[in-house]
Here is the input.
Amino acid sequence: MVFQTDVPQRLKVNDFSLKLANVNGTGSSSANNLLVRAIFRMGVPVSGKNLFPSNIQGLPTWYEIRVNKNGHVARARRYDVMVAMNGQTYESDIAEVVSGGYTMYDSSWPLDKALIREDVTYLGVPLAEMCNDSFHGPRERILMKNIACAGALVAMLGLDMEVIAQLLTEQFAGKDRLRASNQTALRLGYDFAAEHFDHPLPCRVEPMDATRGSILIDGNTAAALGCVYAGATVAAWYPITPSTSLMDAFTKYCAKFRRDPDTGQNNYLVLQAEDELASIGMVLGASWAGARAFTSTSGPGISLMQELLGMGYYAEVPAVVFDVQRTGPSTGMPTRVQQSDILSCAYASHGDTKHVLLFPAHPAECFSMAATAFDLAERFQTPVLVLSDIDIGMNDWVSPALEWDDDYVPDRGRVLDAAALRELEVFHRYEPADRQAVAARTLPGVSELGAYFTRGSGHGSDGAYTETPDQYQAVVDRLTRKHAAVAEHIPAPMVADKAHAPLGIVTLGSCELPVLEAIEILAAQGVVADYMRIRGFPFGAAVRAFLEAHETIVVVEENRDGQLRTLLTLETPVPKEKLESVLVYGGYPMSAEEVVDGVTQIVGS
Amino acid sequence: MPSIVKPSVTNPGLERNALGLTMRDYEGGMSTLCAGCGHDSVTAAITQALWETATPPHMIAKLSGIGCSAKTAAYFARGAHGFNGCHGRMPPIATGASAANRDLLCIGISGDGDSLSIGLGHLAHLVRRNVRMVYVIENNGVYGLTKGQFSASADVGSTTKRGEANHLQPIDPIFLGLSVGATFLARGFSGDKRQLVPIFRAAMAHHGLAIIDVISPCVTFNDHEGSTKSYLFTRQHDVQMTVTDFVPPAEEISATIPDQGVISIPMHDGATLRFRSVPEGYDPTDRAAVMEHLMASRGRGEIVTGLLYIDEQSSDLHELGNTSAQPLTQVPFEKLCPGSAALAEIGFR
Here is the structure.
């Protein structure tokens, strides 16, 4: 049952990667989750990335776990352990195993020839056989096979069985039968592995204390909580992968926190719209009426929202949009990652439009940037788009614990109440009294004195219809100034420039981890680089200063066309030729290796 | 073209409503529509209904899309906020506004292009959600602002000014509404204000979405011989199914229609809707029967008007969502934010 290779595997404590190859729709996610959570609870930095197909059942799906004591948990491209459970992908799966690595397979059947490699050790566990003997019905047998597999991995990776038992207790609280069958399956796998193989493997987990104070959370859940905490009351959406779980989580936490204990009534309303044109329309209507309102969507939804986003910009109506990006163009690859909506969001809609963007890099920022987004949207009376992606949104990340300042007061911007309106000689919606970039707005239902006609058609500073050049330009020129004024309110870029190197690496969002890891690897190879992660648009002085201070700048991002690079050349004075690109856009999360290769090519040439 | 400001000259002898406001106070900007446009008559009927019901102007939210109809939202209730959105998108914008502040009286003004072509999907879903609002379709069978193309409500055989006939089947908002669960459906004619005003008043009191399809002839592009949406054709083919009277809460019923054969429907706010069926046995609370009646009328080439269907019992958007009685815009932030302690309790470990 054990095919032992002669290629030695060196000891890799808390520093290895593992990949589980499965068929989707067989319920492998709870087993995957169990493993990652156990490693996390053992205090060891870990990531779990679900590479799943846009499909319900029958296609290949993978789950990648990377364990790294130094916190480098970006995607690895080679694996120490492969769990090969899907005959459809044996060939490509086995090719990704490191020399001297391990492959676990279901030895209920003979080892498939396609899986055989001289330099890999095979661990056969008769999962199907064991589960057929112990469980009844095809559904339970298939589900428990995954748990039994996890049990074998618990033994082989040296995971703490007590931690696992505790997780099962929590997961199946009040569901004793399910807990028992999971426990049985886990034990089956564990005992078999413990009895038949040397364990744990050289790549193993040992307890550390590196995750204290951290949480394990996905970005969509964090963003949803951020919206609850920021006081959003109206949410409108249309189901679309990978943003659906954001609204699911918002609904869940609203049910928990927003049901008035006295009346039993809801202090929120979630509207499942007929399409994304409607969902952004509902958000604009609700924001116009004075609520904090948002929608969550992905690329195709952004395309559909263009017209009304332009109206929000021109008529100066706040809106918050979470765009959990996926691979485009068109339908693209709905369950794969890209950062390819940057330009279509920055300039969404026809005519001269410019929007405010935020780029969270991890779940904690998805949470904190929700309040930032609502504050900016209301302060500047304009749509704000938060560009997350499926990697941040749907994968569990070890994240700093979410923090909330109880002294937070929402920035509702300039809104005139009835008393303030009575003080005014006349109310002009689009004419700031103090020549600032933002004029005060009024809400319906407050006072006749604040009544005005919100329109996407040409209007002057008084809000009335116009087709007169001067009146039209007075408004759109102020919008230019207003957009520029947002820059200093955008979260400052994260900069690491102590090296004062001539080379600067600029990135955004979920590229953070692979880029930081790559910078370490490059430094070890003698290539020193400063670092800047941009956290929003319009770009502020700190972004411009970094671009100015470096001779060569490499912009690392996940799209084909270098959209962040383009935005930087359009919206800052940086000379275009100073910016180089490293682009990863095949749909899988970026790895440090890709960044190192890309930067080396640029610097070396 | 700048907007035209209406001079605010008030005759001191004008009658005042319960709020002490005159009809002038419910007017808006000067209309820039063509002289004789049906839409201006609809505006006048809405203005009168708002004045009669003594609705506080600041509690009205006027919403519209794009088209000639959309402009009319600027021509009444100058003391109300208006939102002139994008083409066909008024229903979701109104849904959002109503979701945020349930105390607003949302009045949506739309047209046949806005509601039955580009925004047809939104209209159908607005009906399904039963958003509490008045939804007026100023229906003239033609695209006016783009100079006379057929709209989706144009009847088969109706001709353009140049004599070209429409061959496509029309979409009838009343049939659409019946099929997707509308709770208030009426049809009026811009030329019959006496019929329209009580319908608007009933619509404002209705517990849910009230759709009023108003045949509102386009004098410039669709009022010629051969058009089935002209003043003349509508007058010749108008068949009233019901005669409606509306009695506000706490007001004695002083009938403007003869008592004989009158049916009274209590409205949610305590008002009473009274109507008399013109064809004997027409029951606007029986969806299947209404459908049958209207199908037969259509077969006879009639343009049926009056309150055609009403269901005062179905839940509206906020009941379906179990939303707080207090408008969401007024719920204090302390009640919305669970605070740091709750966040720590969630765990995520």
Notes: Chain B has twelve helices and 13 strands. Chain B has one domain: 23-346. Chain B touches chain A through 65 residues (CB under 8 Å).
